[in-house]
Specification:
Elements: E1 2-4, H1 7-17, H2 24-30, E2 33-36, E3 47-53, E4 56-65, E5 68-76, H3 79-88
Parallel strand pairs: 1-5
Antiparallel strand pairs: 2-3, 3-4, 4-5
Pfam families: BrnT_toxin (PF04365)
Protein name: BrnT family toxin
Organism: Rhodopila globiformis (Rhodopseudomonas globiformis)
Length: 89
């Protein structure tokens, strides 16, 4: 699967959350589940993937644009968010 992300968003994401959007590819490869992000109308389907990587949970928000996976956002996940996601499964 081809991965893309905006370089400016990548820098901002790394500064704010300590992980690059390129790390989203690792999250996607290790994901144990995902859910559609319906918090607002994004005019496209956005999916939030969750992965436990070496004991730390991460999330990655992405959308598919044709055959390309466009990574929008990534961050370490707080325990509260993991519990909420597990309850929704």
């Amino acid at each position: 699967m081809e991965i893309e992300f905006d370089p400016a968003k990548n820098e901002e994401n790394a500064r704010r959350h300590g992980v690059s959007l390129a790390f989203g590819a690792v999250v996607l490869a290790a994901r144990v589940g995902e859910s559609e992000d319906r918090r607002t109308d994004y005019s496209e389907v956005r999916i939030k993937a969750f992965a436990d990587i070496e004991g730390q949970w991460f999330a990655c928000v992405y959308t598919m644009r044709s055959e390309v996976c466009s990574i929008i956002f990534g961050h370490p996940v707080r325990p509260k968010e993991v519990r909420k996601w597990l309850e929704m499964r």
